[in-house]
Amino acid sequence: MLTIAVAGASGYAGGEVLRLLLGHPEFEVGALTAAASAGTALAEHHPHLFPLADRVLIDTTPEAFAGADAVVLALPHGASAALAARLPQDLVAVDCGADFRLTDAAAWQRFYDTPHAGAWPYGLPELPLAGGGRLRDDLIGARRIAAPGCYPTGISLALAPGFAAALLEPSDVVVVAASGTSGAGKALKPHLLASPVMGSMSPYGVGGGHRHTPEIEQNLARAAGGPVTVSFTPTLAPMPRGILATCTARLKPGTDPATVRAAWEQAYADEPFVVLLPEGRWPATGDVLGSNVVALQLAVDEHAGRVVVVAAEDNLTKGTAGAVVQCLNLALGLPEGAGLPAAGVAP
Length: 347
Known about the structure:
- The two termini are about 35 Å apart.
- Helix 1 links the parallel strand 1 (about 1-5) and strand 2.
- Helices cover about 20% and strands about 20% of the residues.
- It contains eight helices and 13 strands.
- Helix 1 packs across helix 8 and helix 4 (about 150-165) packs parallel to helix 6 (about 215-225).
- The chain is globular.
- Strands 8-9-7-10-13-12-11 form a seven-stranded mixed sheet. A six-stranded parallel sheet has the order 3-2-1-4-5-6.
């Protein structure tokens, strides 16, 4: 058994990581750490994790991870870099935050208040790349991995096949996505309380203000082989978890609409965690709840000359913790799908 420690175990991301680790055939849960919650029992934060209920959270220090084979950094954005700098180089570390996702220091500075810490291999193994290949190749045996953001996971996988196949224009990409409230974390905020959220939807980060925008553009540029400009509008939906992203891009002149679907079919034919649904069936967040799957469907709007791709994912599973476990499997030489649910929970 390989021992996996979790820093920031009291938050939503840390709790979902622990849920998946408990079901993994090759992993055991190591040290659990926190900041303000240190000294409390895990059951106070994640009462659903019965096998770990009596575990006590300890302070987040490099010494806490001694003896672990890997550590998951489920910390707030900007908090991982200082800790990571003090970790042994042979310790596998997967960061759930944004600290090491962006390769462009200027893009980081536009959206975050801390210095750019550099970039680690990006943990979206299924992402098709320009000229062939996947990001998976960068993750096998890696010691440091940046897990992707929840919005960028579904959006990037939704559009990347069209860019990799040179079917889409890179300058007119529009995405509108809805996310559940767990995407904002556990901190108490008035606009996330039940009363204002129930029965209402609202936009935020409008006009290019959401910090996932440069990450989405970076991923799509990898697929396109050149810069891609994205207009991204996120919205808050009255549900605890899930993302539904409607992603559109203009087709290049001369593209035969009848051939478009084939690019997505070929891209994901061998990817168990990216499911292109049969024609006529559209994704729903309820179908992917608790699973490590992104469900996709597409249509060609011939009148507008655009492709429309809808993606559904669980922001806490495939959008966060599932990606972490998938990356740990690749880094540690295990089957990529070990311990990962390919089926959702219903009703």
